[in-house]
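Researcher: Excuse me, C-alpha cells okay?
***
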Amino acid sequence: MSASAPVPAGRWDALRPAVPVLAAWVVVWALLFRPEIAHAVATWNASTAYGHCWFVLPIALYLAWDRRMAVAGLAPRPTLWPLLLVLPGAVVWLAAERVGIMEGRQLVAIGFLQLLFLAVLGWRLAWAFSAPLLYLFFLVPFGAFLTDDLQRFTAAFTDIGLQVSGIPFVMDRFTIEIPEGTFYIAEACAGLRFLIAAIAFGALYACLIYRSPWRRVAFMLASCVIPVIATGFRALGIIALGHILGSAQAVAADHIVYGWVFFSVVILLLILAGLPFREDRGEPPVPVADTAPPPTAAALWLAGALVAAGVLIGPAVAAAIDHAGAGVPFVPLPAFVPGPGCSTSGTQTSTWSRQDRGVLSGVQNVTCDGFPMTATIGVFRARANPARPIARRRGAVARDLAEDAATTPFTAAGVPWQLVQTQMPDHVAASALWIDGNPALGGLAGRLRQARNSLFGGDFAPVLAAVSVDGTTTMDPRQRQRAAAAIRAFLDAQDGLNGRIIALARAAAR
C-alpha cells in the first residue's frame, strides 16, 4: 500500500523522466502522420473557417500550465490497457484512408496521441491533463460536411423571417431576390467558419470558467446552437438592410464585415451570459504527493513503444496496398471538340499524354465566347486510393483556395457535371469524375466503390475531366454567369464523350 501526503506547490520532479519519452514518441507520431499534419496546416492557411487552429496548440499548452498545481508531486504510472484501443483505432484509420476521408484519418491520429499520453503517464495524470489533451482535437479542420445543412437552415430561417417582416421576395433554393437586388446564401455565408470558431472558444471558456461537467456541457451546447441561429439572423439582417438602403449590391460589398461585427457581439453576449455561473474562484486544489516508487525509464519507454508499434499497423498496411497496385498504362486520351463559338489552340491531348505521379493527364486550351478555358483529363490507377481523384478534382475547381464557392449540378451531353464558381480567386470550373465507369457515382457510394477497387482491383480506372475559366482580373457576377454559360455550351457540344471516357477507363484498368 502506498501513502500520499501534501507537497509544496511547484514540485514536478516526478514528471521529468516522462518528458524525453513523450517528446521522442511524439516525434515518431508526427513522422507517421505527416500527411495528415501537412493537409491540416494547408487547410488552416487556405480556409478562413480554420484559421483559429493556429491558436489551438498554444491554448492547449496554457491549459496544461493552468493545471500545474493539480499534478505537483504526481509520478507517471505507465499502463498497457490503452493498447486494447490501438488496434480498433488502426482499423478505423485504415478504413478512413481507403475511403479517402482525411478528417477521419486526422481525428484517429489525434486519438492515437491521446492513447500515447495515457499509456506513458497513466490514468491519474492523463485525467489531470484531460482538458489540454482533448483540446488538441480542435487541430483537426473538421465539420465541412455540415455546410449543406447549414445552408439549408439559413435559407429556411431567412424564408420565414422575410415572410414575417413583409419584405417581398422570391426564393429559389439559396438565391433570394427582392426588389432591390439579389442575394445568394453561399457556402461561406452558411456560418461554418463562425460555428467552428465559436465551439473552440466555448470549450476554452468552459475549461477556464467552470468546474462542474454539467455547466461545461451546457455552455458547449450553447456555443453550438447560438451561432447557427445567429447566422440566420445575420442573413436576414443583411437582406433587410439592403431593402432599407435600396441597394442589395451596396450591402453585399461589406456583408463579411457586417457579419463579423455581428458575430463579435454574439460572442460577447455569450460570454456575459456565462459569467454569472462561473466556478473559477475559490481555493485551489491541494497538491498530493505520490509516495510509491517511481517508474523505471524502461517502463516508460516500453509503454510508448508498444503504442507506437500498434499505431504503425495502419500506415504500414496502406503502404503495402498502394505498392501492390500497378501504374497507369500509356493510352491515348480523347480530345475535346471545339463546338460552336469555340476554337482550340495547341496540341490535341491524344498526342501528348504523360505520366504525372501515377496519373496519366492531358491539357487542351480552348477559347469560347472570348473566355480562355483549360480542358483537362486525368486517368488514375485502377487501384488508386479515392482520395487522389477527389483531391485532384477539388484542386481543378479551386475549392481549396476559394474564399467563397457556389456549387451547381447540371447535365451536358448525358454527363452529370458539377459547376463551381468561386471568388478570391475568381474561378469558374466544371468537373466530372468517373468511378467504376459511372460519372454519376459520387459521394460516399463512389468512395466506397473505389475503396473496394483499391483493395481488389476493378474493371475501370477513375477518370477526371474538368473545364475551367480562370479570371485574370476580378470578374463581376455577370461575367461569372457568362463564363459559366460558355463552359456549359462547350460541354453540350461533347457528344459521345461519356462513351469515350468509359472506354478509356476500361483500357487504363488492364
